Amino acid sequence: MSDSVITSEISAPYAQALMSLAKTENLSDRFGEDASSILNLLKESPDLDQFLASPVVSLDAKKAVLQQVLGDQVHPHIRNFLLLIVDHRRIAFLSGILKQYQALLRELNQTALAQIVSTVPLNEAQQQTVRERVIALTGAQNVEIETTIDPDLIGGVIIKVGSQIIDASLRGQLRRISLRLGSTT
């Protein structure tokens, strides 16, 4: 089995349990905000991510660091959940669990995720245009935009929504032209 399949099999039950708690307490969106904050923190601090995933660091040290770093910034249920997954030795899967929770939250809120790769950041008008096209394409109520900057695109954008990819980049157009030219010889 691949690592992503194993991660998914471990992450899914924890994410579903967190969603179940969130629905019971009517805190789904709040937990989603906390999940985003924690994911951003882990992305900005790879050292913290490595520390939490390390098998040589004691469980108590991991709990102490989590409580110190997060403080009162997250809901107490989220903090307790994190301490629980430390106890279950699943903290190395934290990013996967939180991303899975976000996917469940998007499904609950009928929100589509549009992953955009562009050469420069999109302005608000461009983002709104993408939102409108994705809503028309998917029928979703809302659209969440996740952007990545890739200067190798030369220009244009690549938009991924679920399994659909819209490649409107100059690099993609050049590749298609090259394929057409190669097939005519």
Automatic annotation (TrEMBL):
What Gene3D superfamilies does the database record attribute to this sequence? N-terminal domain of the delta subunit of the F1F0-ATP synthase
What InterPro entries does the annotation carry?
ATP_synth_OSCP/delta_N_sf, ATPase_OSCP/d_CS, ATPase_OSCP/dsu
Q: Where in the cell is it found?
A: Cellular thylakoid membrane; Membrane
- Keyword set for this entry? ATP synthesis, CF(1), Hydrogen ion transport, Ion transport, Membrane, Thylakoid, Transport
Q: Which SUPFAM superfamilies match?
A: N-terminal domain of the delta subunit of the F1F0-ATP synthase
- Just give the chief location class: membrane
| Family, as annotated | Belongs to the ATPase delta chain family.
| Database matches in HAMAP family | ATP_synth_delta_bact
What is the designated name of this protein? ATP synthase subunit delta
Q: What is the lineage of its organism?
A: Bacteria, Bacillati, Cyanobacteriota, Cyanophyceae, Leptolyngbyales
Gene expressing this chain:
atpH
